Amino acid sequence: MIAQYVLNGFVSGMILALPAIGLTLVYGILKFPNFAFGAMMTAGAYIALILNVNFGLSLLWSAALAAVIFAMIAVVIDQTVFRQLRDRDSITLLVCSMGVSFVLENIARFIFGNAARSFDLVIARPKYILGLKVNNEQIITAIIALAAMAAVYFILRHTALGRAMRAVADNPALAAVRGVRRENIICWTWVIAGSLTAIAGVLAGMDRAIDPMLGWNYIVSTFAAAILGGLGNPVGAVIGALAVGIVEETSTLIIPPNYRQAMSFLVIALLLLMRPQGLLGVATIKK
Amino acid sequence: MASYLVTILTLVAIISILGLALNLQWGLCGMVNFGLTGFFALGAYTAAIVGLSGAGTFAATLAAVVVCSLSCGLVALVSLRLSEDYLAILTLGFGEVVRLVVLNEEWLTHGSLGLPGIPRPFWGLVSEDKYEYLFLGLLAVVILILFIALEMLLRSPFGRAIRAVREDDVVAATLGKNVLMLRVKVFALGGAIIGIAGSFHAFYMTYIDPSQFQMIVTAYVFMAVIAGGRGSNSGLLLGSVLLMAAIEGTRYLKDIFNVFDATQLSAIRLILIGLGLILLLIFRPQGCLGEYRLQIKGRESKPRDIAVQTKTRAT
């Protein structure tokens, strides 16, 4: 019984992990919590919906193409909006990302209306593995999320780009001295964050119906995941997301399911009280 | 037309009270409140529930003030030792929890059905068609009192201390200021003002439901504060009038674009509001009116605003 909840939590944690990585990468490079990722998820889901329903592509291809398209949109948003605010403080950027969030969400609302839609997906009978019920959607979610995470891990650990990204996040001035172009790195960070968030939007849309508020349901949980792992730490974000997913699902054994997001808030509050640098974060002296 | 104008002005007044609160928390002390809508809803629901229990509207307002003030203080207390970003996320989460409670605790809030028949202050004192004017007058008095009190606070040693905390909390702490206590006090005080705004919202609408308390309210208030000039109370009042003019003005979009349905029109308005917020931050972050600064005669004051680093600002 509990194992079933843990499994469900694990899978929903995987959906959370993708925007949490995006959030934490953008925070690492640009030093602001990007509030717009909820609306970015929604936008990704709608792009995939068009590809899936109107163009008849399979969901996998739709998700991949939506990731590419939204990565480009994310770069355009950065160049037109966030680039103008590079030297401002993080709160200005945060408020600005709220504006971006309204624009994205309402473009979706303008085109598609408020009605809930869903992907064109073959409904398959759930499988039973070791006595646990596993939906077809859960398997797809796990495969796509794991593939995306593996790709990001490879980029961050084993490519020149990943090294440069870590360098800029760690010490922008030193990275600049060593000839790392910050603007390029920022651009690639948005490509990665944008595509991950869009994929998460597709997975979320598969999990529940697609409507303009889709991403909003994940905002508090994703922030909880990213903070739990220590903002700026991608591996931490994944672990944080899985923990938040499992805590939220198993908490429904005790409290009404509607209060799942409240659990995330509780996690953030307790964590910030006891270990403000995050579970995996290292205590630093703030200048 | 006159009653339309009175309605708009009443909404401007309620947004202004919220703006005064945000200006205190964020403008003066640098503490971002992203859960403004949640605290606003908390105030409105507290006032509504207490008011409906027959305790009188004054007690209802008082209850809203106490509840909002305490919850704001608690949230600020959790954020001790943390940077501004965390407070933003924490307040956002708190707002979300308030929304969940309002939606799900039907025995208390009637969930999405909302609470009808909220009593109004001084109801029956004047005839029903004149009541709107009385209510607006009452709001004007409240704003005036709050405005004067906040301006006095701004110029007091306490006001200087909290601005010092905003500019550099380490320096403020080094100078012997208890940064945590200052922050908690400011946030709780802001919460009290939000409670007033919430209770007046409940009284004015006489019917509240969760759909009135959406994230967009937070965006409106941030826009009003930024448009007016962060840290300036008189700027804020100007900002909320400008904001309402913009919001109400876009209602007439429907006369121009009569091919779109109601959902699309409201989406266009929200897109415009989002764009407005972005453009404001990019092109005029200092707003219309600047912040009050102590001027020393014979010396050019050099504003060195860490939070709003504007290259265009004339010194």
Overview of this protein structure:
The complex is a heterodimer of chains A (287) and B (315). Chain A has 287 residues and is mostly helical. In chain A, a hairpin with a 2-residue loop joins strand 1 and strand 2. The termini of chain A are far apart. By secondary structure, chain B is mainly alpha-helical. Chain B has a domain of 212 residues. Helix content of chain B is 69%, strand content 0%. Chain B has 13 helices and no strands. The interface between A and B is large, with 48 and 50 residues.
Tell me how many strands of chain A there are: 2
Largest sheet: number of strands, sense, barrel closure of chain A:
2 strands, antiparallel
How far apart, in Å, are the first and last alpha carbons of chain A?
Answer: 49 Å
Q: What is the CATH topology descriptor of chain A?
A: ABC transporter involved in vitamin B12 uptake, BtuC
- Counting copies of identical and different chains, the oligomeric state is heterodimer
- Rg from alpha-carbon coordinates of chain B: 20 Å
How many domain units of chain A?
A: 1
Summarize the amount of helix of chain A as a percent range: over 70%
The top-level CATH class of chain A is Mainly Alpha
How many strands in all of chain B?
Answer: 0
What is the arithmetic mean of pLDDT of chain A? Answer: 89
Total number of helical segments of chain B? Answer: 13
Helix content of chain B: 55-70%
- Which two chains touch over the largest interface? A-B, 48 and 50 residues
Question: Which key terms come to mind for this protein?
Answer:
heterodimer, A: about 290 residues, mainly alpha, ABC transporter involved in vitamin B12 uptake, BtuC, two-stranded antiparallel sheet, B: about 325 residues, 13 helices, about 0% strand, disordered C terminus
